[in-house]
Each structure stands twice: as C-alpha cells, then as structure tokens.
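Appendix B, Record 12. Input sequence as logged:
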Amino acid sequence: MKKSALIILLISLGMLTSSCQFLSDILLSPITPTETQVATTTKTFAPYPVDTTQTSQPTAAIPEQTATQQQPGNPTAVALPQYILQPGTPAYLPNFNQPQAGCDWMGVAGQVFDANGIEVLGLVIHSGDQTAITGEMLAYGPGGYEIQLSDSPKNTSAQYWVQVFNTEGQPLSDQVFFNTYEDCSQNLILVNFVAADLESQAEQTLIPEAYP
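Logged structural output:
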C-alpha cells in the first residue's frame, strides 16, 4: 500500500514538473504577431485637416470709371467755362412778358453776350429737363431766352439752375443756381451770361432793358 502511494506521488510530481516547464516555455518565448494581427492593429493617419472656412475668396478688381461725354440734362462743372454769370444777375422782376398769366407763372429768362458785348444767338439754355434757344424770345433782347419754371411763384433755395450749351451738347458754362420767391413782383428771374474774357469789365455791362 505504501509502495503504491509512493508511485502515485512520483507520477504526480513528474506531471507537475512537466506542466511548469510548459508554462515557462510559453511565458518566456517571444510572441510574433501574425499578418492578420498586424493588419488589424496598424493605424493610418489622415493628413492634418485644413480649415477652409477662413479662406478669403479672390475678388475682381473694380475698374475705374471713365469720363463720358457731357450730355444736356446731365450738367456738371466746366473746367474752363466760356461763359460766366453776369454780375448783377440774377435779378428779380415782375412777369412782364406773360401778362395773360400774371402771377400764375414763374420763369427764368435773359441773354448771352460774347467778348464784344454782342448778343449770341443759337445757344442752348438748359434748366432741368427744359430747354430754350437764345434769340427766340426778343422781349429780353436780340439774344433773349425764356423758360417757365412753375405755374406760380414759390420759395425755393438753389433748387433751380440754368446752364449754357452749344448745339452739340457741350457745356459752355457752369450751372448757375438761384433762389425763387413766393412774390408776384419777383416771379421773373433774369439770368444773363457774359464771355469769360469780359470778367474784368463785366460790371460795366448793363442788363438790357426789356424790349417793348
């Protein structure tokens, strides 16, 4: 009986020793990953993301405006005006040329004079979208013009203007702004132009009296 127990003990010790050696071989031997393991554990890195929300978009250059030919009804200042406002005008008079309208009328009228003080005929006078030709209204002289502004006198401040053009539409004077008054004795505004060469002697040029 003792002999059998000894044999069993020796066999058990042998098996235990073999098991320990097997475990030692497993723990101490290097582990080589398989291709499948490598494929599944390899990480890929995407490029660093670029923030495009702050990227400015190119804008087209704005071309500079080019000068356009002066057209009647779109007046601007003239670099070298050929005609200037005659000193003493605008002058305010009662409406003597439209007696039938009386106080139910307001307008601007006058003449244009050359360097010799002679009335210039055939020039175009603009006031807003209305026009007149010098020499057509003899009540104001040989080169007279007239433009009705309103059907009644009224108070305005630099609302109305007149400007001289030639027949080709080129401006010959600057715009001349003037006031108007709600007064029947001042409902005719007389605006004369003289040649720029006459500036030194313009004060000697008298405003022509109205023709009878």
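The CA atoms of residues 109 and 138 lie 11 Å apart.
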